[in-house]
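Action item from last meeting closed. Structure (174 res):
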């Protein structure tokens, strides 16, 4: 996996990110979108990436195999009285699952969060998404509880686990 480079996404990566989102949306039902991706223009995506690069507590990393985007991971800072928290997202293209790329991106996100002074990371994950739950627990995330019928895909409902990582505790015990 030494040929995979993980770096912060920049506004000029917008077109590749839009195509990537559509690709992964067609590969898994674990995400909030399907193969249609998000209805955003390249300019809107550029603006989103620019605001992430400028925000002190938000980031989006991409995993690259040459010029091909094959994974992404993001932290989105919360506002106001929640500004000590950030919401985490993580995806890898299906053909590259179980090769350690998700772990590498997650390590970068946790490192970024610690350096940025983020105290709590939150995420939601489909309750039957065992690889993702395993991965998050491996890095210390804990389950808070289950949110029933979080997704509805066709006529089927899917529960989600709410998970969090408390970086304050890590700081104290370090
Ligand atoms: C979740 C996801 C990002 C993981 O990426 P990845 O590159 O495959 O992650 P890694 O290879 O680093 O780790 C996968 C882990 O799951 C484990 N795993 C695989 N199948 C498993 C299963 N059925 N049950 C439990 N653990 C499983 C692997 O053994 C590995 O753990 P290990 O490192 O302790 O051996 C990827 O599967 C993905 O993009 N899924 C679709 C999108 C998604 O669900 N994103 C998460 C939304 S919250």
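Sequence:
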């Amino acid at each position: 996996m030494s040929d995979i480079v993980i770096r912060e996404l920049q506004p000029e990566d917008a077109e590749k990110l839009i195509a990537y989102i559509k690709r992964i949306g067609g590969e898994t039902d674990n995400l909030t979108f399907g193969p249609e991706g998000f209805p955003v223009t390249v300019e809107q995506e550029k603006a989103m990436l620019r605001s992430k690069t400028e925000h002190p507590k938000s980031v989006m990393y991409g995993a690259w195999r040459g010029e091909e985007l094959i994974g992404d991971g993001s932290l989105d800072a919360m506002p106001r009285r929640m500004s000590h928290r950030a919401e985490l997202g993580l995806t890898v293209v299906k053909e590259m699952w179980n090769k350690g790329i998700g772990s590498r991106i997650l390590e970068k996100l946790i490192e970024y969060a610690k350096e940025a002074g983020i105290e709590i990371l939150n995420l939601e994950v489909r309750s039957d998404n065992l690889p993702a739950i395993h991965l998050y627990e491996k890095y210390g995330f804990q389950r808070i509880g289950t949110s029933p019928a979080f997704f509805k895909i066709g006529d089927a409902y899917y529960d989600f686990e709410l998970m969090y990582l408390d970086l304050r505790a890590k700081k104290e015990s370090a």
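Note appended to the action item: Residues 28, 30-31, 90-92, 97-103, 123, 125, 129-132, 134-135, 138 surround coenzyme A (CB under 6 Å).
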